[in-house]
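Data deposition worksheet. Section B asks for the primary sequence of the deposited chain exactly as it was used as input, without tags or linkers unless they were present during the calculation. Section C holds the resulting structure in token form. Section D is free text for depositor observations; keep each observation to a single sentence. Incomplete worksheets are returned to the depositor.
Section A, Depositor: J.P.
Section B:
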Amino acid sequence: MKIVFAGPSLPDAASLVGEGIRVLPPATQGDVLAAVAEGANVIGLIDGGFEYAAPVWHKEIFHALSLGVAVLGAASMGALRAAECHPFGMIGIGRIFDDYRTGRLVDDAAVALTHAPSALGSKPLTVPLVNVSATLDAMEGKGLLAHGQREQIEQAAGAIFFKKRTWRVIVERCVGMAEPDRRSLLAALLANSIDQKRIDALELLKAVQEAGDMRADVDLPWKLHETSFRTRPAL
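Section C:
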């Protein structure tokens, strides 16, 4: 059984996966542990809750890995946990994971965004910093940014709380810019916007589809020490 935890990074995940892959809402503490108990042999972690519930616990990922379960992460909470757990066998995928792994990204909040409720499709409502960076890279490569403009946009975006960060608000926070220039910049940002979280999440889906059952071939250079804290916390 293959399980993918997805939400705002890939709201349409359920319509994109093949047969035999179950899509669940963003994971919180205990969900990976429960997936393993249900028989999952491949787990793809894209999105995870963190604000109103405890996030996915590292040790439940270690527990899955110790049993030979393939655990892959990308895009959001998955990229964070993969960067932290890849020395133990978790598979990280995509640019965002690589940026955290190499230290180009250090702030967990760079992937944070506000989104619609799951009942309304979990559509992203704000822009995460990782998408700002990817968009500016693309625009810079096309010669669409004036000298010093990238730094100005990045500073403005970084100063905005993730729940309020939209392209319009970012442009409004760019000081010393004439109104016609603001309109032109906003139009260019919207036209060239890169959703890096979605790109990485799609790459993870492909990897999950191709992954095989490795539980019979467990040969790890480390051993998980069982403790009473491995179980799901009581409510």
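Section D:
The first helix runs from residue 13 to 16.
The CA atoms of residues 136 and 150 lie 7 Å apart.
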